[in-house]
Give the backbone structure.
Amino acid sequence: MPDPDSIPAADLPPRTVRRVGGWAVGNRGDDEHFAVSRRCRHQLADLAEGSVDADGCLVCPWHQSRYDVRTGEMVDGPRGFLGYHGPTPGYSGLVRLVGSVLRLRVGRAVRRGDDVVVTDRDARA
């Protein structure tokens, strides 16, 4: 029976992210795996549907907020609000401030054989 907190490593090529239970699990590149909570701090988009950029940050699929997957901190964005996609300087700054305090929960994703297994590493919500 498959472990609900694991994913085949073959399903995580470099710069991808997938859903594993309550986690957004990805590969920053060179098999450097990560696990963070799935809900964006901006408008609760599912980060498992996002992408991993060239810097290894997780990018929200809705308004391109960027997260450092090692700390869970929002480092950039958002670039829009609701259905609008574009500049929102004051609003984006406020959301970034909130995102730096209310970080994503960071888990531990480790390779075990052919799988990447996720364990809870901290208690942040």
